[in-house]
Amino acid sequence: MIVVKVGGSHGIDYEAVCSDLASIVKSGQQVILVHGGSAETNRISEKLGKPPRMVTSASGYESRYTDRETLEIFEMVYCGKMNKSIVEKLQRNGVNAVGLSGLDGRIWEGSRKAAITILEGGRKRVLRDDFTGKVERVNLELVHLLLNGGFTPVLTPPAISYEHEAINVDGDRAAAMLASALKVDKLVILSNVPGLLREIQDEQSLVPEIPFAEIEEFTAFAKGRMKKKILGAVEAIRDGVKEVVLGDARKPFPITEALSGRGTVIH
Amino acid sequence: MIVVKVGGSHGIDYEAVCSDLASIVKSGQQVILVHGGSAETNRISEKLGKPPRMVTSASGYESRYTDRETLEIFEMVYCGKMNKSIVEKLQRNGVNAVGLSGLDGRIWEGSRKAAITILEGGRKRVLRDDFTGKVERVNLELVHLLLNGGFTPVLTPPAISYEHEAINVDGDRAAAMLASALKVDKLVILSNVPGLLREIQDEQSLVPEIPFAEIEEFTAFAKGRMKKKILGAVEAIRDGVKEVVLGDARKPFPITEALSGRGTVIH
What is the complex's ipTM, to 2 decimals? Predict the structure, then answer.
């Protein structure tokens, strides 16, 4: 069994991801696909007159400020447009996919962080009414039920808070939580870059391998969204996943390539 | 086991539907909820600069002209915003709900009608590139799996065509297909009217009961969206459902009220 996370940034080839995933499923391997939708959420938010607002937390991580209106747009794009378009592609490739959010069957449960401290122009500010949070518990019952029934789960944020509210959570870290809860050997995190780059502008500067003991010295290279992917990888390996591969979803056979070691392998 | 369909028109009290459904589920009854999202789809379509276009078929039924762009907006609202908001409400009421479309597990399968003949200004015209269709087959495997696992399915269009495309289908008729495939005794169809009215403007003119043998003489009262509800009811009863109740979703306890005979009972 493997967990594959595919991002939501520009340039990702979902057709390639879905046809590659289909051949892996047909070979008898169980796969759970986790996906994002950030670029499309930005586009739809703009069109709806509610431009996205990205904030940087005091600890340096970037996230989407998510009031209730933003959360509903987020759900429209992640759970509606993106999720159903991926399910449709998988069905076309002969995979009996089932699209879900973390609300469904409470798969991803965690705490809402209603007040977040952000850095704005070098100063700290507290934002309230934010529906973001962190997955702390994975309820596997529904996932096992589907896998045992021959279905392929396609999972996307939001998660659900202990107070039963939908919360925006980071997809990479949620996928890492899922991977370690399922005790899979491999977690593949695909995005629109070849993996961790020493120089963000230079795709030739790929870090091909990171032994877990040396992760600290490599995390400094991670910029922007890559920071959370590395954080997710660290959490997954700490919690028992043997190998995490950061791979490129702009190329053909992105999952197969990552599984064969192309990208940044963390073990 | 019962199937409840709740519409997507203005005035529907989803909180009331969800809390009522929760108490029925807690009493030990299995429920499958099917929902729509038409009013919200119209609102979002307008905001996205793609106003809805309703067309009337040559046989007199109204439907949404659904090109691919409209289909994606439809999925955003039905599968994203509406579905996840209902799942969230049910979770808050202690029901372990799982939100799905007809694509997931191919629950609703049917044929796409790429060319539809419409009436426009009294003249017939053929529209092409339309992603609408009709549910012809219900694949119950996933529904049974969820019910047996203690989950409550929350189902919404689109369905999936035999060529693996998402297709817009009528929710009332799709719910009727589901109800007869599941061989349930009762199908409850809730909307923003008290049931079938003799005079559409007069809520006092409710038809309380229609023996199936006399359905023909009552269908003439059905206007607009009520026509498809009656059509769905006829199809459900013809295929083995014992009773269909058209009830009011603007009131407290809408499902319980309908089950106790308030609304239009067709049997």
Answer: 0.96
Torsion of CA B12, B16, B21, B26, to 10 degrees: 170
Chain B nearest C-alpha distance from A117 (Å): 27
Give the C-alpha separation, B117 to B233, whole Å.
24
Within the 142-171 window of chain A, which residues sit less than 8 Å (CB to CB) from chain B? 142, 145-146, 149, 151, 158, 160, 164-166
Q: What letter does residue B82 receive in the DSSP assignment?
A: I
Strand partners, B167: B159
Q: Does A79 touch chain B (CB under 8 A)?
A: yes
3-state secondary structure of A238: helix
What pLDDT was estimated at residue A186? 97
Instruction: Kindly report, residue by residue over B49-101, the tens digit of the pLDDT.
Output: 999 998 888 877 778 899 999 999 999 999 999 999 999 999 999 999 999 99
Give the pLDDT score at B70.
97
Complete DSSP assignment for B204-231: GGB--EE-GGGHHHHHTT--TTHHHHHH
State the amino acid at position A112 in one-letter form: R
Tokens of A7: 């991002």
Q: Rounded distance, CA B193 to CA A16, Å?
A: 47
CA A197/CA A203 separation, integer angstroms:
7
In order of their start, the domains of chain B are 2-266 (3.40.1160.10)
Tell whether B4 lies on the interface with A, counting CB pairs under 8 A. no
Q: Which of B72, B92, B100 sits opposite A81 (nearest CB)?
A: B72
3-state SS record for B243-256: EEEEEECCCCCHHH
Q: Is the pTM of this model over 0.90?
A: yes
Segment A60-113, tens digit of pLDDT: 777 889 999 999 999 999 999 999 999 999 999 999 999 999 999 999 999 999
